[in-house]
């Protein structure tokens, strides 16, 4: 019996998505347990401060290095960058399992951020190896794989922490990342590296800012990321104020439900062919803004959960369409730099969003972090009006 023929771009897509799924599980295994691990290390004061620092240093270091790794990937390929990130992060998790104090953990989390970039490299590889007519579908599948991994990770983390302890979970995470690193090579994912003129990394990064469309998209993505993160400090508190009983259970469900709808929505968005990508991006942004504001007005767990579920669908559309716009607006020889700069700028939103949301929640009330997030998304929508549909012959310089 002959097996059905699978085109190379589709083989690449499924194998890379499997790697993204494994890596996403690894990334979300340890995150919920880092505050507990700090206490196990003997930290008795300023636990909340150090928890924030240990979380933030990873994002900050990643934001610094993302454009550099992106530019290097344009020269030497995305597969080597996936291997470098997976093996490098895997090694830091093995070392984290052996730390003796919070300072060592902080330093290793920073090194982990410097070496990260597996999923951005995977997205860029999929964007480069997919046919233009299949780009939406391909990035939708990758987004779904990432979302499912993020949902699965905390469950796997809970099981491994119970069976192996937190240090054992870190070793398990390192093993998963090593598997993700070698998967593209073991599965013989093919990549075509297009020779490019010899330029410095700084010139590659600067070239992305000469592209007017990319600059607008970067600004929109910064606003989106800040808006998404603005609700994180107050969402658990809002859930607790709505339902004082079973608050922990409802918090876990409501945080996870966005991942579920994102995993369901991303492949569906990828199959939309008769509607322009930029319009999907704009109207989904507007819907996300409205749903974020409504979350701040929710008075029941059911209403909040339903709104978060719908938000996940539209957020998946924003993510898929936004990545397609970045890919199509970039020079093919410079896509790594384009996505690297995108991830660097998004890390600013990762850090600034919780600060904005926390300030609004403390000074004006919990609902206002949601209203602030909605305003940021509205600003992103207004700015997206200046984004044009990428197409042949368009010059964005």
Automatic annotation (TrEMBL):
Superkingdom of origin organism: Bacteria
Alphabetical keyword list: Cell membrane, Membrane, Transmembrane, Transmembrane helix, Transport
GO cellular component: plasma membrane
Presence of the UniProt keyword Glycosyltransferase in the record: no
Localization (cell): Cell membrane
TM region(s), chain numbering: 12-37, 49-69, 106-128, 168-187, 215-243, 249-269, 281-303, 309-327, 339-360, 366-387
Membrane topology: Multi-pass membrane protein
Keyword Oxidoreductase: no
A molecular function GO annotation: transmembrane transporter activity
Residue span(s) of domain Major facilitator superfamily (MFS) profile: 12-392
PANTHER family in UniProt: MULTIDRUG RESISTANCE PROTEIN MDTG (PTHR43414:SF6)
Protein name (Swiss-Prot/TrEMBL): MFS transporter
Gene source species: Biomaibacter acetigenes
